[in-house]
């Protein structure tokens, strides 16, 4: 199991007036000093994004249990949060490691001591390859990356040979699809890449990878069929590569964003049923780690993933009938009414630089006189548009007073966290004690 990250420096980080939303009294304090002073969310300036600690723990439990019950490994995508303290919670909940998207993110993760990494991307830059070769001198480092062409493999070989890598780099052949993102476009092309990787002296063929989320964006029958067909081709490729795999080390078959983990699990489950980890050579036997990379589950959301996830608490598609088996939104924005220029319209002090907008605009959830006040519903209101620093709140017959605050449900965690250096974590939905400050490293 992955060990403990080196998180001590997070507590010694000194807060400053440059940190959005931080209370004025916190300026000059370390994070640890501030948290020891008993802060509450009501002290923070607007706009702010707050996380719910109780719901985060719930979501970690739901996803961890669901994967374990299906014999799946989980290497959640760390680029969602770029928050080492949250990565540690994911590791503590049973994750095999953390997935990352760039070598810059890998370097950040290694600076905190992360020892189990999947790079869902290729490495072709000579500088990055030299860095990787240096890190591979650590015998505790588990690292695997992707490649989708012979040209990619050749670039890796040149860089690794120049750097003098102490051991081969594990590489998964990335299978794509026409019109999708990266990845070899056919099983036959992927097989050629695998054969080349298996013959390398500085690379090791370590399995099959890919991303199904770019192939569909809803839960229609057509979309689900496209995702299923793609994942089935992954399994087909993995079986075809048996003759090329060496006799040592783990093998990966990996897919699974946060939109279709149920489809991926179903296909992988069928493959494992053919080989219930008994050593059947068709699926690589017990060496094969059937691995999901879903990352957004840790906070879920009130928009895109709420609509498409099979685990949403309000969805008929949810993983089980009990609320305990469903994800809950664990992040919310808060913005203040700073203008009421006409009937039915109010302007809030948070905009595109504070809240996500790429997968749907924020959803008004409630209004209060201030952050420590009682929340009243805003069922008919909506965000009509957003500027850099303002959101247009359409009131639809309701009203809000100048200076009041509006709670906002947010869509897409991946473009929420990158807007904030610190995000306060409250104890629960009903308890605004700030129990942590999540620090991000984008």
UniProtKB/TrEMBL annotation:
GO terms, molecular function: lyase activity
A Pfam family the protein falls into: D-ser_dehydrat
D-serine dehydratase-like domain sequence ranges: 330-427
InterPro entries: D-amino_acid_metab_enzyme (IPR051466), D-ser_dehydrat-like_dom (IPR026956), D-ser_dehydrat-like_sf (IPR042208), PLP-binding_barrel (IPR029066)
Organism domain of life: Bacteria
Protein's UniProt name: Alanine racemase
